[in-house]
Write a structure and sequence with these properties.
By secondary structure, this protein is mainly α. The protein contains four helices and no strands. The protein has a single domain, classed as 23S rRNA-intervening sequence (de novo design (two linked rop proteins), Up-down Bundle), CATH 1.20.1440.60.
Length: about 120
């Protein structure tokens, strides 16, 4: 069955859940991080599903692959922000571990979709 909307993609759904979690935990970051790490983590998180949606809405498969690649880069950026927050003591280990696991799940789904698109040139 062909995907009719990005909302049907599990990777987009999981990416949206990741955004919600990042916003939830980053609310507890110090106020002086509002325009720093908080903003950067939130922007990287929202970029993941946003680029999946934009790419799926494009006409050409190559555009979709390109936007999935951007989403993957944003996921790596988010992982880095989460590691920084954990090292600074802004995220407890349990929160970090849960977010890290969610990032890994989204990454696996992204990689699988990219592999599928690259191996089926139709």
């Amino acid at each position: 069955m062909a995907v009719k909307s990005y909302r049907e993609l599990e990777v987009w759904q999981q990416g949206m859940d990741l955004v919600v979690e990042v916003y939830r935990v980053s609310k507890a970051f110090p106020q002086d991080e509002r325009w720093g790490l908080t903003s950067q983590a939130q922007r990287a998180a929202t970029s993941v599903p946003a680029n999946i949606a934009e790419g799926q809405g494009r006409v050409h498969r190559g555009d979709f692959v390109h936007h999935l690649s951007i989403a993957r880069g944003s996921l790596m950026e988010l992982e880095t922000h989460l590691q920084i927050a954990n090292r600074l003591g802004l995220l407890q280990d349990a929160e970090f571990d849960a977010l890290w696991a969610r990032c890994q799940d989204v990454g696996r789904l992204l990689n699988g979709l990219l592999r599928s698109l690259n191996s089926n040139p139709s």
